[in-house]
Design goal:
Shape: elongated
Distance between the termini: 69 Å
Structural class: mainly alpha
Oligomer: single chain
Number of helices: 7
Strand content: under 5%
Helix content: over 70%
Radius of gyration: 24 Å
Largest sheet: none
Number of strands: 0
């Protein structure tokens, strides 16, 4: 048998990785540019970037864990209810599964036969997959999502910090923003490639929103710096 590797299997970690790295670059670069616009001291910009990296990574880990755990709780509740229904009224559940296959275009007699055979092997698994839409590829994994988001955020945030370390003080804003945009475009291209999508549109989308976020934050930083 030929074993196929489907791209949907990557959706859990790919979503968390792209989101984490994207947020790491944008939020840290925007924070540093905002501080740079309000203050000319390079040390203050670096302190802001490092603080943003640490706080952002912890926030991403906690946020992903809480949100994905909530999804996992919902899945467990649905499975528990389905398990109870299978125990109390298996005939109704068989008819319910049969109707799902009929609506997908399967002949009613064949649909009933398929439902009975699948339920004989793994009734809960059949209903989880075909009635609830829960499968191994998309099931919630809180710890995986939290660790992936925190790690990729830290990697993304390290890029504008590294740019600030090597940039001459008078060019700091230009180097940080330029390198960040290049990294964002590269991230969009890599995410699209790994996910099996076309490269151009995701690349432009990530770069555009990153540039907008950095520009707005730098503008607000400049206004606050003048006011204070």
């Amino acid at each position: 048998m030929h074993t196929e590797a489907h791209l949907i299997d990557r959706i859990g970690w790919l979503r968390a990785a792209v989101l984490g790295a994207n947020d790491g670059i944008i939020s840290t670069a925007s924070l540093m540019l905002g501080v740079a616009s309000a203050s000319s001291a390079a040390s203050e910009v670096l302190v802001a970037g490092i603080a943003g990296l640490i706080a952002g990574a912890m926030s991403m880990a906690a946020g992903e864990y809480v949100s994905v755990s909530s999804q996992a709780d919902t899945e467990r509740a649905d499975l528990a209810r389905e398990r109870q229904e299978l125990a109390t009224d298996p005939e109704f559940e068989t008819r319910e599964l049969t109707q799902i296959y009929v609506r997908r275009g399967v002949d009613p007699a064949l649909a009933r036969n398929v439902a009975e055979q699948l339920m004989a092997k793994d009734a809960l698994g059949a209903h989880a997959r075909d009635e609830l839409g829960i499968s191994e590829a998309v099931t919630a994994k809180p710890i995986q999502a939290a660790l992936t988001s925190a790690a990729t955020f830290a990697v993304g945030a390290a890029l504008p910090i590294a740019a600030a370390l090597i940039a001459p003080p008078h060019l700091l804003q230009w180097v940080v923003s330029g390198l960040s945009l290049i990294c964002l475009a590269g991230l969009g291209a890599v995410g699209a490639k790994v996910g099996g999508a076309k490269i151009l549109k995701p690349t432009l989308r990530v770069a555009f929103w990153g540039a907008l976020a950095m520009a707005i934050t730098a503008g607000i930083g400049a206004l606050v710096g003048r006011a204070v």
